[in-house]
Write a structure and sequence with these properties.
The complex is a heterodimer of chains A (about 750) and B (about 230).
Chain A lengths: L4 H27 L5 H28 L6 H6 L6 H6 L5 H23 L7 H21 L25 H16 L1 H13 L5 H32 L9 H26 L3 H24 L14 H21 L1 H4 L11 H33 L7 H21 L10 H29 L13 H46 L6 H11 L1 H21 L5 E7 L4 E4 L2 E12 L3 E12 L2 E6 L2 E5 L7 E3 L1 E3 L4 E10 L6 E9 L1 H19 L5 H28 L28 H25 L1
Antiparallel strand pairs in A: 1-10, 2-3, 3-4, 4-5, 4-6, 6-7, 8-9, 9-10
Helix pairs in contact in A: 1-2, 1-6, 2-5, 2-6, 5-6, 5-7, 5-21, 6-8, 7-9, 8-9, 8-11, 9-10, 9-20, 10-11, 10-14, 11-12, 14-15, 15-17, 16-17, 17-18, 17-19, 18-19, 19-20, 20-21, 21-22
Chain B lengths: L1 H11 L3 H16 L1 H27 L7 H7 L4 H21 L5 H41 L17 H14 L2 H16 L2 H4 L27
Helix pairs in contact in B: 2-3, 5-6, 5-7, 5-8, 6-7
Classes of the chains: A alpha+beta (about 750), B mainly alpha (about 230).
Chain lengths: ~750, ~230
């Protein structure tokens, strides 16, 4: 019916390039003394964004109508795929993911244009020009290296190849968009930084302007990485959630620098210090998002989940070189204006703690970058191929992470500029007491509860360094648990002090507040500060979860039906295997009865799925029994059809659920920080950005809660028939309650906004 | 006639996203997802063309900037920036003293230093505005046809700077964000908890407001202090 769709799609990308170039030129002219042209640039920006949206919708249409003339559609979809996964295919492969990136950038650009209306008029032209230059880069990339609308030389096939079964998982469907939202979001702060450097408007205005944008990007970087962890944990079946794979590393690198910026920006706002540092952090964060994309797309480093090797890597290399040259040149040009006006007055001050925290975060980022690239560096320098695996990262990153954890707790105890000895003693008393009590309890009861304070670790390297790392590895779990108590006490103390101050204030006014009214008003008045503390609490929970790895139990066993094996507190009895078939695949289940302390927990059924389209790559379907104490994680390797013998990988992963809980708390805390601070009437377009940000976070939160699979396969109790099988999580599992709540929440927000807008008029 | 069409289009503009959404949903419900995507694509194409048209039309717009637009182009001076930073520092100090993160001696030392700095900056800013104010007064006088009002007073020396405290307080209230507002609120309370005699802070006999130790006039009602 639609004979020219591929040509139209390609034409639209050309149009995007032309519109972006036009807008860039007009914006630069507006910045060079013709402010009236700003409106033309703004409209040009909107037009470019609409064209990108049009291209994305056309590709979605091609997927929905199975237009297999388009190579990308034929490669990443087939006729049997459900509609939701057809949409997910938009970002399932390389070419489409570039268009998806551009689409998200268009969304950010439109929001930014709307928000900037009538403000930052001096910065606006260069913000628009920078955003358009990024759009133009992606348009060039698509046109000359990875066109999602290019057609197959052989003509249209009858059916497509289908999306990789591993990617047909709802976590994977929402993980890339969330991560991309984080990655692409860093483009807006970068554009403001470039605009500030070009115009010389290096006052705090631009820093305040990008505050929420960066926090929004940081939130989605966190959510994206967490979703990736969940996907790896549930779908890949190797027993863990983070393997320090190059692509995983690439995804978390900008998170480190964005976290550093979120803290160091406070120093600039308050003390007019660290101007160069902040500009550099923003530029590096943006650069790392491009670097991460380059690492994923270029095939430079072997990774389990990089896209197919292609020739687009060189485009990224040139672009990164261009970005570095422009940013470094501008910083050098503005060096005098960027010099610090303040200085750190005392070591015992919050700014000193923040600077230290920044060093550690940037240090970890540098370490991970170098270690990730080390196989290539070693190949270039020493002609030697080496592999840098998870044990190496875990040995070195763990102590640095614990140092960061300590700084996270200590920094809020200091005041800005200077903290007296008496204040410090008062501030540290309770948290240190809590840490000491936790340490004693851990030493006394840890072994009995299955979490010994002292764990045995192997020496990874010979020599003194190896011995030190080994000793550190042995005591780290104990240190982290004590620091978790310390951090929690700090957060509680900060809230308590704030509440006490409010109550004193209300007492004086003769209108005493209840403590919970004080608490709510305190958070309401200082969302950024107390939202940040809630985020810190989420990180505490996540650290506890990470530490659980120290007490994990891993075992491999080959069992015949009726065999039993003990795994920690669990006793597993292999009952036998069975096969089921549907239109797409054969499913081989191995039923294992699980008891704990004599109580039956039901039958767990790890499985192998053999898809017809990729029979040579059977997928692993993990069976899990989750609890806050630990996860029992069963993977079946092979099942003999004759003898019914099966080989298993069995894991007990303590405290993993604390990580997911921590992520939920982190999202909540970020949402509190992002929530609009002013009345809707006052905040104008800013409010829509923040409301959208908060709304999206709330929706992510609702979806997260609703979709969290709680019982996996362990649902049958004694006396009930064992479950036949449970299909891998799919879009059908999306609980209507969660989706409905999110929908109604969004409608409510929209209704409030519209009513306020009317009232304003 | 064309003017009316334009007016109509302008009036309909806010509703176009709603109309498009309705068309997309309608197409999805009646003819399937494929057609609804085409309708959405059509809407986006029209929006892109409209925006480009508006952009090209704006290219020839040489109208003068409005006052708001011109003001938005102005950058704050270095002193203005420093003033904001110092006022923010004072707010932080108040908050930290309130929640017990800084001792009284350190608070007094830092607070005095920042207040002096703020006063100096306010005076500099005030002096920098004098020529402009004089010009405004002259223009006003000419416009009103009356005698020129007396020229604006130079900022008094530090010891007489009664107005500075008031300005400092009003700036402190407006400069910050909500977070700072809460800080100010709680900080002020703690400050006033302390006995005025002990802290050496004069209290206004007229309105009972506690003022800063170096104030000569009340920051609330302007009454001369002691």
């Amino acid at each position: 019916m639609w004979q020219t769709l591929p040509e139209l799609g390609t034409g639209i990308i050309y149009a995007v390039l032309v519109a972006a170039a036009y807008t860039f030129a007009v914006a630069i002219a507006a910045g060079r003394g013709r402010p009236r042209l700003l409106d033309a640039a703004r409209f040009g920006g909107y037009a470019t964004c609409a064209l990108i949206g049009l291209g994305t919708v056309l590709l979605a249409y091609a997927f929905i109508t199975h237009d297999f003339r388009i190579r990308y559609v034929a490669r990443y979809s087939d006729r049997s795929m459900p509609t939701a996964y057809l949409f997910a295919s938009l970002w399932g492969g390389q070419d489409g993911s570039l268009l998806w990136w551009a689409a998200l950038l268009a969304g950010y650009t439109s929001a930014c244009l709307r928000w900037m209306k009538g403000r930052y008029r001096q910065l606006q032209p260069y913000v628009i020009a920078t955003l358009m230059s990024i759009v133009a880069f992606f348009a060039v990339l698509m046109l000359f290296a990875a066109n999602p609308f290019s057609t197959s030389m052989a003509g249209a096939s009858l059916d497509g190849e289908g999306l990789n079964p591993l990617l047909q998982n709802y976590w994977m469907a929402i993980h890339p968009p969330a991560l991309y939202l984080g990655f692409v979001g860093c483009a807006v702060p970068f554009s403001f930084a470039i605009a500030a450097l070009v115009t010389g408007r290096l006052d705090n205005d631009w820093v305040i302007a990008v505050r929420k944008w960066m926090l929004f990007a940081w939130l989605f970087l966190s959510i994206g990485n967490a979703l990736g962890m969940i996907w790896a944990y549930e779908e890949l079946g190797w027993g863990g959630y983070w393997a320090w794979d190059p692509v995983e590393n690439a995804a978390c690198l900008p998170w480190f620098t964005a976290s550093a910026y979120v803290h160091s920006t406070m120093i600039q706002e308050r003390r007019n210090m660290l101007k160069v540092w902040n500009v550099v952090l923003i530029c590096v964060t943006f650069l790392l998002t491009i670097f991460g994309t380059f690492l994923t797309r270029s095939g430079l480093i072997a990774s389990v989940h990089s896209f197919a090797q292609s020739n687009i890597g060189i485009f990224f290399v040139y672009y990164m070189g261009f970005v570095i040259a422009v940013a470094a040149g501008l910083i050098a040009w503005r060096w005098r204006e960027l010099r610090s006006e303040g200085r750190i007055e005392a070591v015992a001050s919050r700014e000193a703690a923040f600077v230290l925290n920044n060093w550690v975060l940037v240090g970890i980022m540098t370490f991970v970058t170098v270690a990730t690239l080390w196989p290539k560096i070693s190949e270039w320098l020493y002609k030697e191929s080496v592999t840098v695996g998870p044990p190496f990262f875990n040995r070195w990153i763990a102590p640095a992470g614990v140092l960061l954890f300590l700084l996270m707790g200590v920094a809020p105890l200091f005041g800005w500029r200077k903290t007296s000895e008496a204040s410090l003693k008062r501030a540290f008393a309770w948290p240190l007491g809590a840490a000491a009590v936790m340490l004693v309890l851990h030493l006394a009861l840890g072994s009995r509860l299955g979490y010994p304070a002292w764990v045995h670790t192997d020496q990874f390297y010979p020599g003194v360094v190896g011995a030190i790392l080994q000793k550190l590895g042995s005591i780290l779990p104990m240190v982290v648990i004590a620091l978790a108590a310390f951090n929690t006490a700090v957060i509680v103390q900060e809230f308590a002090r704030g509440v006490a101050a409010r109550q004193r204030s209300s007492d004086k006014a003769g209108d005493r507040e209840s403590w919970y009214a004080s608490l709510i008003r305190l958070v309401d008045k200082s969302r950024r500060r107390y939202g940040g503390y809630i985020v810190h609490f989420g990180i505490v929970l996540m650290f506890i979860g990470f530490t659980g790895k120290a007490w994990s139990i891993d075992k491999e066993a080959t069992m015949a039906p009726g065999d039993q094996v003990a795994l920690g507190d669990y006793t597993l009895t292999y009952k036998g295997s069975r096969m089921e078939v549907d239109v797409n695949k054969r499913m081989v289940f191995a039923d294992v009865e699980v008891t704990r302390g004599g109580h039956s927990l039901g039958v767990m059924s790890p499985a192998k799925f053999i898809y017809k389209r990729s029979a040579e790559m059977p997928t692993t379907e993990v069976a899990m029994h989750r609890s806050f104490r630990d996860d029992l994680y069963l993977v079946v390797g092979m099942v003999s059809p004759e003898s019914k013998k099966a080989s298993f990988q069995l894991h007990v992963n303590p405290l993993v659920s604390w990580i997911w809980l921590g992520v939920v708390v982190l999202i909540f805390g970020s949402t509190v920080s992002l929530w609009p601070e002013m009345a809707l009437r006052e905040m104008g377009a800013w409010g829509y950005v923040r409301t959208a940000a908060a709304g999206l976070s709330a929706i992510a939160f609702a979806v997260w809660l609703g979709m969290s699979p709680s019982t996996a396969y362990a649902s049958a109790r004694e006396g009930r028939p064992p479950p036949t099988h449970r299909a891998p999580p799919s879009w059908g599992d999306l609980p209507l309650g969660g989706a409905g709540a999110a929908l109604f929440g969004g409608m409510g927000l929209a209704a409030v906004a519209i009513r306020r807008r009317r009232a304003e008029r | 006639m064309p003017v009316r069409v334009n007016d109509l289009l302008l009036r309909a503009r806010p509703f176009t996203p709603l109309l498009l959404a309705a068309a997309v949903i309608g197409a999805a419900l009646t003819r399937g997802l494929g057609l609804s995507l085409l309708v959405l694509a059509g809407g986006m194409l029209l929006y892109a063309i409209g925006s480009l048209w508006a952009s090209v039309q704006s290219l020839g717009d040489d109208a003068a900037l409005s006052l708001d637009e011109a003001l938005a182009l102005a950058a704050p001076s270095a002193e203005e920036e420093k003033k904001r930073s110092v006022l923010r520092a004072l707010k932080d100090l108040e908050y930290e003293r309130n929640v017990g993160k800084i001792g009284d001696a350190d608070y007094l030392e830092l607070s005095t230093r920042y207040r002096e700095e703020a006063r100096r900056l306010l005076r500099e800013l005030n002096d920098a505005e004098l020529p402009a104010r004089a010009r405004v007064e002259k223009l006003l006088a000419r416009r009103l046809g009356g005698a020129a009002p007396p020229p604006p007073r130079r900022a008094p020396p530090e010891s007489e700077a009664q107005g500075d405290d008031t300005e400092l307080d009003s700036d402190t209230e407006t400069a910050g964000d909500t977070e700072l507002d809460s800080d100010t609120e709680t900080a002020g309370d703690t400050e006033s908890e302390r006995a005025p005699e002990a802290s050496g802070k004069p209290t206004c006999t007229e309105c009972d407001t506690e003022n800063d130790p170096d104030a000569r006039f009340c920051k609330k009602c302007g009454e001369a202090l002691g």
